[in-house]
Amino acid sequence: MSAQGRLPAYFIPHGGGPCFFMDPPPGGPGTWDHMADFLRSLPGDLTEAPRAILMITGHWETAGLSVTSGAHPGLIFDYYGFPDSTYELTYPAKGDPVLAGRVADLLEEAGFPTELDAERGFDHGMFIPLKVAFPDAAIPVVELSVRKDLDPAAHIAIGQALAPLRDENVLILASGMSYHNLRGFFANDRRVEAISEGFDDWLVKAVAQPQAARDAALIGWESAPYARVCHPREEHLIPLMVAAGAAGSDTATHAYSDVVLGKKLSGFRFG
Can you tell me which residues the record assigns to a coiled coil (predicted)? Predict the structure, then answer.
């Protein structure tokens, strides 16, 4: 593909558990509507359908890196306490063993040892947002873990290693949440709302910068206002680093902005 045909990379929110496939919270009938609308808009935002999707999810952590390599991965229902119907959801997307090998090769060449995992299924950080965005499950998907050390610089470098896939008609989707403090999510406290806005404002400005400044800001994300309040543990933010790395010199668009349960959330398109 030419540079003009290069697919973008995204950092997308995946919501709370199976939120799009159950009744909304009491008193909040439209809680997840805008997020669902954003996810549904993804196919129309592309100039052509991707041949495959590479998903980086904050719900799979490994010591090194691992990539799903099975031809027909099952689903992992890694959420708890939800209605029985949400454990009967299906998403029969195929895997792509050839793409998995390509991902591993790119990462190995960049100095990141990577294991092929033919047994691993798709966690809800993958199948919940994709069931909204690509409901026919016709596009093969490969899922990549994040490293347990959650090193932001390393994950930017991981994204840089994966950037060639964007020219190979592979859609890179980094699945997480720009705010992820579960206790804070359910706190009816205006101070918590203001805290989420402070961090989100910083994040939007940081991601909008040119590549060098953007990378430096994301590597130093812990110095952002309220960083550790919004992310007591950063596994849901780290996928953003991979998307930013894959972006290279491409600039970011603030593709999604919403307030969910009083907390400010964002998503980004690179390229």
Answer: none
